[in-house]
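COURSE: Structural Biology Practicum
ASSIGNMENT: Worksheet 4, Part C
STUDENT ID: 0417
INSTRUCTIONS: Below are two proteins. For each, the amino acid sequence is given first, followed by its structure token string. Answer the questions at the end about the second protein only.

PROTEIN I
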Amino acid sequence: GEVTLELTQLQRKQEQVMKVFLLLLSVAALSCGQRTSPPAGQRCSGRNFNGRRCCTPENPCEFGEGDCDGPLDGGSNDGHRGCEGNLVCGSNNCKKFGLYFHEKDDCCDDPSALPERIQPVLIPGALLEPPAGQRCRGRNYDGRRCCTPEQPCGEGEGDCDGAGDGGVNDGDRGCRGSLVCGSNNCKKFGFYYHEKDDCCEKPTGGSVSQGSNIQGSDWGPWSKWSDCSNVGIKTRTQKCNVKECTLNNGRVGSVNTQERYCFRKK
């Protein structure tokens, strides 16, 4: 009786506090000129909505749209051709256009907003060249996502596609055993890596992160990669074994699609 009533009143108070907090957060975001959801009609709203590399040379983006694949991403990229006119592809700059973007999304921006190139700092003990026999050495050598669930990497190898990249990703399945996929952490293993490369490493605190595996029991196996297209993209899909499956970013669907860069044989 009385205990149940007190618990109900406490729950109501907690709900009211949460509603006020969310309202204040929305007001603060709007007062700073930042949106919490994509505007109507926006074609490319970042990896949380449209995946990575929504802006392409074939379908370039307008000011404040992303994700584009610019030169600051290293490796094989579109340069600034994924942006309309004289706009340029920034680096991790989408948050200033809207809170709904992922922190690693790159948006089309004014040329004056491009950051100055900062000289990297040498980390003591970091190798200047990849060791002989290392299979995955980052996007400067082997492209992005060299570490996959089918061919996982050892400690200090990359690039892996972890949960820190947002959107559809491999979680920690691109790393062997109990290793986890870090975020922009490869430079500590070797100076030859790009600053955006993610490497497999031992988990902090000695425990493997849970919930980063996007492929739950309801997802079927991945299909084989398609042939490389004329625009240098290959795709693969996995189908949901039930009516709907949930991805790591909260979205639901019946088909999960991944895209990767590739080179056509001449």
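PROTEIN II
(use this one for the questions)
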Amino acid sequence: NSCLLSSLSHVVPIVDEESEKRACEQIKMILMQKQSVTENSWFLLLYLYHRVVPQSQRSGIRVTARTQLWPSSGLGSSSSYCCSVALGLLTMWQKDNSLEAVNQLALDGEKIFHGTPSGVDNTACTFGGTFVYRKASAPMFTPVNFNSQNQPKIIVINSNQPHSTKAIVSEVKSQSNRLQDVFADIGQVVTDAEARILLGRDISDLLAPNQELLNKLPGVSHTSTDLIISTCKRYGVPAKISGAGGGGIVYGLLSPDIDVAGLTAELKQRRFSVMLNLDIGVQGVRVTEQQ
């Protein structure tokens, strides 16, 4: 790729520890520019490779990445990639590959993609399971286990409207002073949902009020996701956006009496993409085979 080679030519030659740091910083600067998903993935690999592998041990490396996640949609595809690359590199070069180490390295990669990420996506990809996130001086992740008999069935719909998490988060952050009441109301919905999950109770009626609150945040709502949510509502499926919004994905909770086939057909007719038969709270990143 000529763009990749052109950008790479600006990375300083690595001859000592100081130039090593400068190289990593220049790779980060390249990644912070608006690049394609492929270019970002390539440079992120380069950045993590420099972070993990000592200069004396560097040689050719082949990495094959496959995913079923839609990129730039709010599903955490960048985190899944960061976590996988981090664990692979740490394991191959016999570094500390504990989940804590993987999570920290993946978060560093996420900062390049998204600026100031919450840490939710990389934590979910690393440790797996289900948890509640609360923003504090240090982020708090509280595990929450669904009752296996009451685990909701979900549908995930991709609006196929690309968005920039970094841009939307920055916009919301710039207006945070006037949005404190909205943040507080969203926090209360989350607290109610957590309490219900722990008791094995239904949370479907909380999705609509949560979405109404999210619509009050700048840049979060989009005509494509609004259409998906209204379509789901006609079929009796409560739904809300996930991720930063501004497009991306919507998820809905399915009850046994829903016409899933009809809903799916209508969504696809409108050129949205659909995922069904998804499990919640699965295992996080792991090495499945090592040679």
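ANSWER KEY EXCERPT:
Q1: The CA atoms of residues 235 and 262 lie 8 Å apart.
Q2: The first helix runs from residue 2 to 8.
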